Write a sequence for this structure.
């Protein structure tokens, strides 16, 4: 299919056929990263700006590698080294970057909705690399790619997402993506971390963790942040690990071939026991590998790689 | 100087409702003539202006008891003059300005500066509101006696909640003795760390939510303190159904309390936030449809006494930014009457009821006079109820244009505003 979408801001705005098209493209590009010469000329001469207002290692490196494997020139800017610290507004910074004619801006920001603000003011395609607690569409897409790789079809799968749903953009985008593709999503975690009205996104709330993982095809554990303890969201890491940590006993309640996933970084011994993290069913590192292919696919589609490919 | 307002529909709730003429001499209403015969002219004076008010409604001058004029200190958002130009264009003959200026109005000098600056403008009257606590810091009482002597009409820590219940109790008691009204911005700061209404929409957008209880918990506290002290409290900008229920219950028990809401709370819901539209960001936040319905019911059954705008000008610098970093508040002086008239069209209020909420009740609460009767000061709003227009926030009199009503089709507006017998605004 022809690709006509300028920005990738969230999962909600993508159609099922667009998601399928992205996943198919990513599947095809995955092989490039397994070659000894990991580079194709598809985006030669294109410029990708990685505009990170919030610290990130995994996602930024993943995008950077994805751009370079497609031969695009990638430039990474973080808030700490940009004119943000000199008091420049987001819009002014973005307009300045746009004046240097980039082909794609990949953006990470701690404020929910920041990519929408940007897309109203600049014409360069934007890929949202995570905004506040709102959306992380590339993570959801790589999660769907990973599950599809093992389960072939997302339809009818039971996905359990467990942890701090309230502060998780990954959870929101995963709920949107998996339900859109026909899977059922249950969420679980301490009631303090289940935000009001989350059911309206299409997920079922199952407060009892053991019940939530029972017969699950996929268990997605979310990182717990220690500083949430100060906001009275949980009493202690010890108690959290006891009530909401995924250990071998709990894993046994899921389907025998249940995939164990985590968007990282892991808190071993808190939300996930070391034995589970390293379990044969754990695809946590496959998620990271697929992240590169998935981001190559998005850069390729958004930066007009499809048109370039025709030219060659 | 004589002013003759001819053939208008004179509506002063509880006093007069009919066609007639109003004669104003030197700022004071000298005669109200009902159904005056066409030939029966008042005595001719040389210095006289005759206004044909046919088709208009002539009402007691509107009072907005909750505005932010941003002056002194934030004149890039609004000045006393531009704020008052917006006020009279919206039909308001008087406003109460909140004290969260820079520096804050907790003393005689700022209060006097505001009054003197406003007097020089010859627009709407300004009644400054001083702070409840010195420096808005929530630690000690401001000098209420000095504020009162300088011309302040009330005290409020608007924008900042008074977290300390003992401070609020003493504020009521001390202000009651001085003769200042206490206006409470009800918000529990421990519960209110969010960017919009708590609920499915905030969850979907990944924004921290502000629950209804952040407001109603303090509304209930203020009602308890009013009951304890016997001193009336005025609850500002009511946005939740629980607050409406609490105030209704308290009033039925005879607790001395009054309350206001703002046009955005009876007109909009959280849906207006749309795709992170900062023009719909305010504190308290726009709520759910259930809350909007309860606010409208509270207006129609008298639980909510007043419609006040909470006019809160902000420049593009504070609004065209990330949603969670954007300033709270919207301008409202130039849209309040039109939005109020929608309530009349929608049969939530009678026209009489609307005038009570926008003129008579604020006057009663503040101890001002708004009567269309001989001997009363001529503060009048002339309303053209049939005027159709599209609201353009950019073309308003306010320095700022942060309004979610930009582009709305409106019916009814102020045609003319008269303050102490002077025509300070004419819609052309």
């Amino acid at each position: 299919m022809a690709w006509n979408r300028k920005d990738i801001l969230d999962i909600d705005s993508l159609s099922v056929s667009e998601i399928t098209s992205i996943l198919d493209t990513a599947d095809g590009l995955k092989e490039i990263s397994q070659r000894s010469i990991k580079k194709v000329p598809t985006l030669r001469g294109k410029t990708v700006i990685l505009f990170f207002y919030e610290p990130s290692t995994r996602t930024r490196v993943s995008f950077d590698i994805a751009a370079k494997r497609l031969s695009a020139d990638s430039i990474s800017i973080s808030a700490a080294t940009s004119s943000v610290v000199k008091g420049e507004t987001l819009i002014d910074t973005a307009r300045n970057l746009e004046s240097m004619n980039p082909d794609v801006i990949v953006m990470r920001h701690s404020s929910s909705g920041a990519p929408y603000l940007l897309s109203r003011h600049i014409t360069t395609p934007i890929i949202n690399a995570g905004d506040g607690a709102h959306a992380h569409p590339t993570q959801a897409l790589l999660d769907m790619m990973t599950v599809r790789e093992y389960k072939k079809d997302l339809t009818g799968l039971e996905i359990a997402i467990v942890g701090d749903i309230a502060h998780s953009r990954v959870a929101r985008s995963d709920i949107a993506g998996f339900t859109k593709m026909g899977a059922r999503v249950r969420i679980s975690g301490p009631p303090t971390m289940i935000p009001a009205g989350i059911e309206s996104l299409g997920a079922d709330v199952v407060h009892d963790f053991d019940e939530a993982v029972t017969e699950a095809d996929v268990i997605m554990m979310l990182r717990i942040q220690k500083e949430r303890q100060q906001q009275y969201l949980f009493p202690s890491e010890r108690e959290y690990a006891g009530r909401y940590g995924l250990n071998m006993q709990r894993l046994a309640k899921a389907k025998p071939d249940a995939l164990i996933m985590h968007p990282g970084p892991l808190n071993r011994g808190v939300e996930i026991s070391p034995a589970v993290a390293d379990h044969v069913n754990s695809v946590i590192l496959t998620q990271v590998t697929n992240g590169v292919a998935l981001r190559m696919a998005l850069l390729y589609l958004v930066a007009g790689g499809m048109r370039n490919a025709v030219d060659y | 100087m004589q002013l003759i307002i001819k053939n208008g529909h004179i509506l002063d709730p509880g006093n007069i409702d009919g066609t007639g003429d109003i004669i104003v001499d030197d700022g004071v209403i000298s005669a109200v003539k009902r159904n005056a015969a066409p030939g029966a002219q008042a005595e001719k004076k040389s210095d006289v202006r005759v206004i044909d008010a046919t088709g208009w409604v002539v009402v007691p001058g509107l009072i907005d008891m909750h505005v932010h004029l941003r002056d002194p200190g934030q004149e890039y958002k609004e000045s006393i003059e531009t704020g008052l130009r917006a006020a009279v264009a919206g039909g308001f003959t008087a406003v109460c300005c909140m004290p969260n200026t820079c520096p804050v109005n907790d003393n005689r000098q700022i209060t006097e500066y505001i009054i003197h600056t406003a007097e020089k403008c010859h627009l709407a009257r300004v009644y400054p509101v001083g702070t409840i606590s010195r420096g808005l810091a929530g630690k000690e009482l401001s000098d209420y006696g000095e504020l009162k002597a300088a011309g302040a009409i009330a005290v409020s820590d608007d924008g900042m909640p008074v977290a300390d219940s003992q401070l609020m109790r003493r504020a009521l008691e001390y202000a009651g003795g001085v003769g200042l009204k206490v206006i409470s911005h009800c918000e529990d700061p421990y519960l209110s760390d969010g960017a919009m209404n708590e609920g499915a929409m905030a969850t979907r957008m990944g924004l921290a939510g502000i629950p209804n209880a952040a407001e109603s918990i303090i509304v209930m506290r203020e009602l308890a303190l009013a009951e304890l002290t016997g001193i009336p409290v005025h609850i500002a900008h009511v946005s939740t159904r629980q607050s409406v229920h609490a105030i209704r219950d308290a009033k039925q028990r005879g607790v001395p309390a009054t309350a206001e809401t703002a046009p955005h709370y009876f007109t909009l819901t959280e849906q207006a936030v749309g795709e992170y539209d900062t023009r719909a960001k305010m504190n308290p936040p726009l709520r759910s449809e259930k809350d909007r319905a309860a606010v409208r019911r509270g207006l129609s059954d008298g639980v909510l006494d007043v419609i006040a705008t909470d006019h809160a000008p902000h420049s593009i610098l504070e609004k065209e930014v990330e949603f969670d970093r954007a300033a709270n508040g919207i301008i409202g002086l130039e849209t309040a009457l039109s939005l109020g008239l929608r309530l009349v069209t929608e049969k939530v209020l009678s026209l009489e009821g609307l005038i009570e909420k926008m003129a008579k009740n604020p006057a009663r609460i503040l101890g001002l006079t708004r009567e269309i009767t001989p001997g009363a000061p001529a503060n009048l709003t002339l309303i053209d109820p049939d005027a159709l227009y599209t609201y353009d926030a950019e073309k308003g009199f306010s320095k700022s244009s942060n309004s979610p009503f930009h582009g709305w089709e409106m019916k009814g507006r102020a045609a003319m505003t008269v303050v102490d017998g002077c025509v300070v605004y004419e819609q052309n």
Q: What stands out?
A: Chain B has a mean pLDDT of 96. The first strand of chain B starts at residue 2 and ends at 12.
